[in-house]
Amino acid sequence: MSNVKALPLLEPEAHEAVAPCCPPLTERPFTAEEAERTARMFKALGDPVRLRLFSAVASAEAGEACVCDISDVGVSQPTVSHHLKKLKEAGLLTSERRGTWVYYRVEPSVLAAMSKLLTTTATP
């Protein structure tokens, strides 16, 4: 018997949560939908443990980190798993199981969206 499982494809609706959502804060006020999506992202990063985990994944060599290499953040393994799940639900991380371990990556559009959001628009 094989333990290989096919990963499901993301539905467009699920992928919308990670798409760059908003213009720079200084460009115009957010719509209600933009504010909701952005708040989810920042709420997930508002916890120091989650921020450390996100930073560990974002700065990992090869652009990905095994959960076995990033779990030393001062909390139990079940708590690390909970925080990683919250980061995934917010659209900040993706994961892939390889054998016993799970490898995490920063969702490609996230850092660009965060950078764009916090960029000041040029004034004429």
TrEMBL record:
InterPro entries the UniProt entry points to: ArsR-like_HTH, HTH_ArsR_DNA-bd_dom, HTH_MetalResp_TranReg, WH-like_DNA-bd_sf, WH_DNA-bd_sf
Residues annotated as domain HTH arsR-type: 30-124
GO MF terms, alphabetically ordered: DNA binding; DNA-binding transcription factor activity
Keywords: DNA-binding, Transcription, Transcription regulation
Source organism superkingdom: Bacteria
Alphabetized Pfam families for the sequence: HTH_5 (PF01022)
NCBIfam families named in the record: HTH_metalloreg (NF033788)
PANTHER family tied to this protein: ARSENICAL RESISTANCE OPERON REPRESSOR, TRANSCRIPTIONAL REGULATOR, ARSR FAMILY
Protein name, per record: ArsR family transcriptional regulator
Organism taxonomic ancestry: Bacteria, Bacillati, Actinomycetota, Actinomycetes, Kitasatosporales
